[in-house]
Amino acid sequence: MQKIPLKDTTQHHGKIYVRLMSGRFQTLRRIVSWPLLAAFFLMAWLRVDGEPLLMFSFSTHRILLFGFELSWYDLQLLGGLLIAGAALLFFLSMLAGRVWCGFACPQSIWTWIFIRIEDLVEGKANRRAKQDKQPIQTNVLLRRVIKHGLWLLVSILTALTFTGYFTDVYHLLWQAWHFEMPIYIAVWLLTAVGLTYLNAGLMREQICLHACPYSRFQSVMLDQHSKIVSYDEGRGEPRAVKQSTGAVKQGDCVDCTLCIQVCPVGIDIRQGLQAPCINCGACIDACDSVMKKLSKPLGLIRFASESELQGQAYQLFRPRLLGYLSVVFVALTTVVYGFTQTTDLLVEFNRERGAMYTVQGNGEVCNFYKVKAEAFNIAAEQMKMSVTTPSYTIYGNATVALEKGDAYWRGVRLCTDTPVPGKSIVNMTFTAGEAGTEKQVTFFAPRPL
């Protein structure tokens, strides 16, 4: 397995003033990120029949998924989705480097939101850089207060929405309005607000470089055919810098540094593949805009593989790439099948602690049990219990109310007048509407002396 060496040649050791740039890759980034951003907020706030589109409800032990209910016992399906997602990430990494980071990663999406707020309130990058070098003025201070206020507002909305995936967000707002929010939720919200504010507003590229492990192990996933953001050194060098004689060298790169100015992680892509690079394509759009003005071919900086830059043929289908794709397919197929086998009726039928059996005055032998039931995607409100093994009878209420959440245990007495000495198996049937399940329970009777 070939490992592509990574460099760390970050140009800025202080604050990075990102210059916003338009272009086809920035448009593509918005096409990818805006629907993801909309889905993040809408799925927690929108309601269908009074239920959110997606919520992991701890209070009711349910997973709500687009009007469909899953039990905690179906949680392994999400594990399958995570496996598919990880394999898809490996596939994309080998195919085109860190495109996930540049186009869909939440850290990148929120960072661009905060950068746009900064650009809108305080002005363009060069203006912000000049202001930071001068004594602070009243209008500058006011703009900074507004900027941080908007950052804080986005952080609060983000924290509320994320928490809404685990508890009802409207009930959460009601609790906050009436000062009845539990302390553990309040602490969590403050933590989430702080992390969003710090990660997207203040730390930004430091998260990508130091906190995210992906920047370090990405080189293991790349090979010589992986298309990554690359500078065509053969075409760009030597750079077109005027010499003392007035002659101009023939490289297409004019050393305008625009590719560095637009980079959200502050690197010079001309130094080669680097760990902080998130493959967002901002430097490609910047360089293409310069090439257009100079009437030169586009693509001095482009998505290209190492083999292409060396003049070799590009190979799309590689064994490892196909292997990752196969894992994605198998995991998704397994999850889809799992959704057809989800639990609609969850029944727990356990023996009571204490005596193994009791003998009634009429000679019947009885065992005591406790039962509780939860229903998912079932309109029925009650569950009926019955014994399919002959000569066994349920005493007490054979109907159990179906609960959502913390279901109550109810006592059940199972008796027979023709007991089998020792341990025996009794077959039980539980039905609720069209849903049903069967269980085998143990029954104990006295042995003859």
UniProtKB/TrEMBL annotation:
The keyword Transcription does not apply. Residues 244-272 form the 4Fe-4S ferredoxin-type domain. It comes from the Bacteria. The keyword Membrane applies. GO terms for cellular component: plasma membrane. Keywords: 4Fe-4S, Electron transport, Iron, Iron-sulfur, Membrane, Metal-binding, Transmembrane, Transmembrane helix, Transport. GO terms for molecular function: 4 iron, 4 sulfur cluster binding; metal ion binding. InterPro entries: 4Fe4S_Fe-S-bd (IPR017896), 4Fe4S_Fe_S_CS (IPR017900), Cyt_c_oxidase_cbb3_FixG (IPR014116), Electron_Trans/Redox (IPR051684), Ig-like_fold (IPR013783). This is Cytochrome c oxidase accessory protein FixG. It comes from Marinomonas fungiae.
